[in-house]
Design a protein that fits this description.
It contains 10 helices and 14 strands. The protein has 328 residues and is an alpha/beta fold. InterPro entries: Epimerase_deHydtase (IPR001509), NAD(P)-bd_dom_sf (IPR036291), UDP_G4E (IPR005886).
Length: 328
């Protein structure tokens, strides 16, 4: 098969590229490299330096099909930044996605897999765990932008027949178990790599945002899903959108608190993590845990790297072996 991966130089996108290559498929990457890394793209994989905000340039690449499917990971993705600059997030994520989706409908693409988010569920009445039927009430402009894109995909199916899978996943983490790719955001905002860098002495003491949440230890609880398991789910879902679109929540179904992440890094590294408390961040819910029952039943997917220590260990090995990230 031949696939186009928008945002294939980013964290999740690069791991999906690896999974597709491992399965024997041909992959073409489309990325503007504003946050992704050229070195994250494996040797021999064709890539195009294109910004999705440019419809004509985007359409020219999509026109180079046929494609057996398109994967869409390209987006601004920081909750906190979206609270500080909401119009930029809403505009950028919506328009870039609209351009890609429109180009797909114009050039005969039949399937698209969209990287959505658990940030759709930001209201105070969230169930635990969160199923697809939960009330959609985004707690940030970032979450709102992803829901807007889901609605565009709905109408692209209704009017043009473009079948989509919207995967609302939770906290992507870890690194390729073979050491070929890992997490390298600039700046880094995710808890696991920040904690690892703190224990390795590469940054000051970790700041833990909020210890007064209504959880077992007062810190936020999140559903961490290994990025390799995420990639597996993206590929599996392709076989289930031949004649209808789907929306699935995607996570391990088990929550770990921020303090438990610190304890896991300490177990894996054998060192104490330097950390200090900090005020809550705007837009952070207390608990986000996925109910992935529907995805598991429909596709046969289940996580192979579900234990927190396994997730942390792969991330730790990659960051230890790549102290400067991809740009070293």
């Amino acid at each position: 098969m031949r696939y186009l991966v928008a945002g294939g130089a980013g964290f999740v996108g690069s791991h999906v590229v690896l999974a597709l290559l491992d399965a024997g498929h041909t992959v073409v990457v489309l990325d503007n490299f504003s946050t992704g890394h050229r070195d994250a793209i494996p040797a021999g994989v064709q890539s195009h330096d294109v910004d999705l905000i440019d419809y004509e340039a985007t359409a020219q690449i999509v026109a180079q099909g046929p494609w057996d499917g398109v994967f869409h990971f390209a987006a601004l993705s920081l909750v906190g930044a979206s609270m500080q600059d909401p119009f930029h997030y809403l505009r950028q994520n919506y328009l870039t996605s609209m351009n890609l989706i429109q180009a797909c409908t114009a050039h005969g693409v039949k399937k698209i897999v969209f990287s959505s988010t658990a940030a759709l569920f930001g209201g105070p009445e969230r169930p635990d765990p969160i199923a697809e039927t939960a009330l959609i009430q985004p707690g940030s402009p970032y979450g709102e932008s992803k829901f807007m894109i889901e609605r565009v995909l709905h109408w692209a199916d209704q009017i043009y027949g473009l079948k989509s899978a919207c995967l609302r996943y939770f906290n992507a983490a870890g690194a390729d178990p073979k050491g070929r790719a890992g997490e390298d955001h600039r700046p880094e905002t995710h808890l696991i790599p920040l904690t690892i860098d703190a224990v390795l002495g590469r940054r000051p003491a970790l700041k833990l945002f909020g210890l007064d949440y209504p959880t077992k230890d007062g810190s936020c609880v999140r559903d961490y899903i290994h990025v390799t398991d995420l990639a597996d789910a993206h590929i599996r879902v392709l076989d289930h959108i031949h004649d209808h679109s789907v929306v699935y929540n995607l996570g391990n179904g088990r929550g770990y608190s921020n303090l438990e992440v610190i304890q896991s890094v300490e177990r894996v590294s054998g060192k104490k993590v330097p950390w200090e408390p900090a005020p809550r961040r705007l837009g952070d819910p207390a608990v986000l845990v996925a109910d992935s029952t529907t995805l598991r039943q429909k596709t046969g997917w289940s996580p192979c790297w579900g234990e927190l220590d396994k997730i942390v260990e792969t991330a730790f090995v990659w960051r230890q072996n790549n102290p400067g990230g991809y740009k070293a």
